[in-house]
Amino acid sequence: MNIGITGTNGLLGSELLIKVRACGLKATVLDRCRFLISDGLKNAIEYIDSLGCDVVVHCAANTNLESCEINPQDCYSDNVILSELLANACRLLNVKFVFISSTGVYGSSKKTPYHEYDELLPTTVHHRSKMLAENAILSQSNDALIIRTGWLFGGDFNLQKNFVANRIREAVLSGGEIKSDGTQYGNPTYVKDVSDIIIKLVYDGWAGVFNCVNTGSTSRYGYVKEIINYAKIDVNVEAVHTPFPRLAKVSENESAVNLKLSRIGFKGIRPWEEGLDEYIRSSTEDIKKIFN
């Protein structure tokens, strides 16, 4: 099986690339410059066909929530039109398409964790673009697979959007205290665990929508507090109970449960704390460099 992956410079895409190859499968990097919207569907078909992909996992996305609010047309182009283009090309080539979405699509209608059958009421342009992309993809193919992930962590410590690494750097450079949002809740989710689930679902031939998050939810404050704790940094983390000023009206509850995964026989994904502890332990040398 040859699995093509977009977004291999990101947290999930880079880890999925490693995991696929570790499973003895072929992993192919899809070059973003080779499937531009302006080049049309025919070009995308020819490019994917030339790579011999059996599956395409679309991890790449415009994830800058503030920028998406300022430039919604760019967001829709990046996250909806491009995703629809790739999904169309895959459908015509009989290639399975996997789209990475977010639990943020559920919005703010509940105080408890969301499952796959809850209504989607996104509160930001970014999450609305993810919802629209999901709808477009599923309308094209009954074989497409949608993965809704939580607050992703893991990957190379030097990646710009590595939340764990950035909070550790912030703590090291602070004067002994950092602040974090105590009002927003979600599931910190390890990219290693998500990658394992994606590979298993693809291998078993599953389609449709699946939540894929580590077990347990917490506030941003609780998440950051555990990062600092596991990294053994002597810094106080203060909870802020008024929302941080931002354009994107992010839901206060992005937490979810893996209802469908549990019903089709998948054992519960480990608690997020266990994944975070493992990741930070594996990053000891990178953390030492931050202190130096």
From TrEMBL:
<dbReference type="InterPro" id="IPR036291">
    <property type="entry name" value="NAD(P)-bd_dom_sf"/>
</dbReference>
<dbReference type="GO" id="GO:0008831">
    <property type="term" value="F:dTDP-4-dehydrorhamnose reductase activity"/>
</dbReference>
<dbReference type="GO" id="GO:0048269">
    <property type="term" value="C:methionine adenosyltransferase complex"/>
</dbReference>
<keyword id="KW-0521">NADP</keyword>
<dbReference type="InterPro" id="IPR005913">
    <property type="entry name" value="dTDP_dehydrorham_reduct"/>
</dbReference>
<protein>
    <recommendedName>
        <fullName>dTDP-4-dehydrorhamnose reductase</fullName>
        <ecNumber>1.1.1.133</ecNumber>
    </recommendedName>
</protein>
<dbReference type="GO" id="GO:0048270">
    <property type="term" value="F:methionine adenosyltransferase regulator activity"/>
</dbReference>
<comment type="similarity">
    <text>Belongs to the dTDP-4-dehydrorhamnose reductase family.</text>
</comment>
<dbReference type="GO" id="GO:0009243">
    <property type="term" value="P:O antigen biosynthetic process"/>
</dbReference>
<comment type="pathway">
    <text>Carbohydrate biosynthesis; dTDP-L-rhamnose biosynthesis.</text>
</comment>
<dbReference type="GO" id="GO:0006556">
    <property type="term" value="P:S-adenosylmethionine biosynthetic process"/>
</dbReference>
<dbReference type="InterPro" id="IPR029903">
    <property type="entry name" value="RmlD-like-bd"/>
</dbReference>
<dbReference type="GO" id="GO:0019305">
    <property type="term" value="P:dTDP-rhamnose biosynthetic process"/>
</dbReference>
<dbReference type="Pfam" id="PF04321">
    <property type="entry name" value="RmlD_sub_bind"/>
</dbReference>
<keyword id="KW-0560">Oxidoreductase</keyword>
<feature type="domain" description="RmlD-like substrate binding">
    <location>
        <begin position="1"/>
        <end position="282"/>
    </location>
</feature>
<comment type="function">
    <text>Catalyzes the reduction of dTDP-6-deoxy-L-lyxo-4-hexulose to yield dTDP-L-rhamnose.</text>
</comment>
